[in-house]
Specification:
Helix content: 40-55%
CATH topology: Rossmann fold
Strand order of the largest sheet: 2-3-1-4-5
Number of strands: 5
Low-confidence stretches: none
Structural class: alpha/beta
Strand content: 5-15%
Distance between the termini: 16 Å
Number of helices: 9
Shape: globular
Order of helices and strands: EHEHHHHEHEHHEH
Bound molecules: 2'-deoxycytidine-5'-monophosphate
Number of domains: 1
Radius of gyration: 16 Å
Largest sheet: 5 strands, parallel
Mean pLDDT: 95
């Protein structure tokens, strides 16, 4: 049986944590689609053409720890505006979404473009300030040098680029359930997300 859960939202809203927890809860496979754009973005940092990089992407490219840096996140957001880059990544995402046994995909355009027929759709968001604070604490926790102001500016810049681009901009699908995690602890956000999926499954 194929069952797709589409989870979209801006950077650091809690999509990753919620998606992993939902996949574990339902026993579904999980794809963090941001990694596809990060892997392409990372290749452009050493001079590769983004469209060539997207067309040549392999599963091994998605495993690198180095994809989690702010520089790669910005590069990902920049290559994500290119229509040919997005087009090169569509088939892989759609095949993953319809695999037998169920799938959770998180990203920016899963419920709107990649899988508009998904059985359950969530849009996970939080204020830019809350998201920046979470990202700042995560970076400091990993031993990176970071300032609150720089992280907030980075989050806002990426939000603007992701929401204003012409191709598959970040926005909730009309039938997505909105979950604002600004005031929610992780457990409460996960419970709210599971309840929303259960309600859409019924
Ligand atoms: O979710 P993330 O922070 O790893 O995503 C990195 C960038 O990739 C994000 O700023 C925009 C882009 N992206 C996208 O355009 N579409 C997706 N489905 C996922 C990510």
């Amino acid at each position: 049986m194929a069952f797709t859960i589409a989870i979209d939202g801006p950077a650091a809203a809690g999509k990753g944590t919620i998606s992993k927890a939902i996949a574990a809860h339902f026993g579904f496979a999980h794809l963090d689609t941001g990694l596809l754009y990060r892997a392409v973005g990372a290749r452009t940092l050493d001079g590769t053409d983004p469209i060539d990089a997207a067309r040549a992407l392999t599963a091994e490219d998605l495993a690198a720890d180095s994809l989690r840096t702010p520089e790669v996140a910005q590069a990902a957001s920049r290559v994500a505006v290119i229509g040919e880059v997005r087009a090169a990544l569509v088939d892989f995402q759609r095949a993953f979404a319809r695999r037998a046994g169920g799938a959770v995909l998180d990203g920016r355009d899963i419920g709107t473009v990649i899988c508009p027929e998904a059985e359950a759709k969530l849009f996970v968001t939080a204020s830019a300030e809350v998201r920046a604070e979470r990202r700042y604490l995560e970076l400091i926790g990993k031993g990176h040098d970071a300032s609150r102001e720089a992280v907030l500016a980075d989050v806002k810049e990426r939000d603007a680029r992701d929401m204003e681009r012409a191709e598959a901009p970040l926005k909730p699908a009309e039938d997505a359930v909105l979950i604002d995690t600004s005031e929610l602890a992780i457990d409460a956000a996960v419970q709210a997300a599971i309840a929303a999926v259960e309600a859409q499954r019924a």
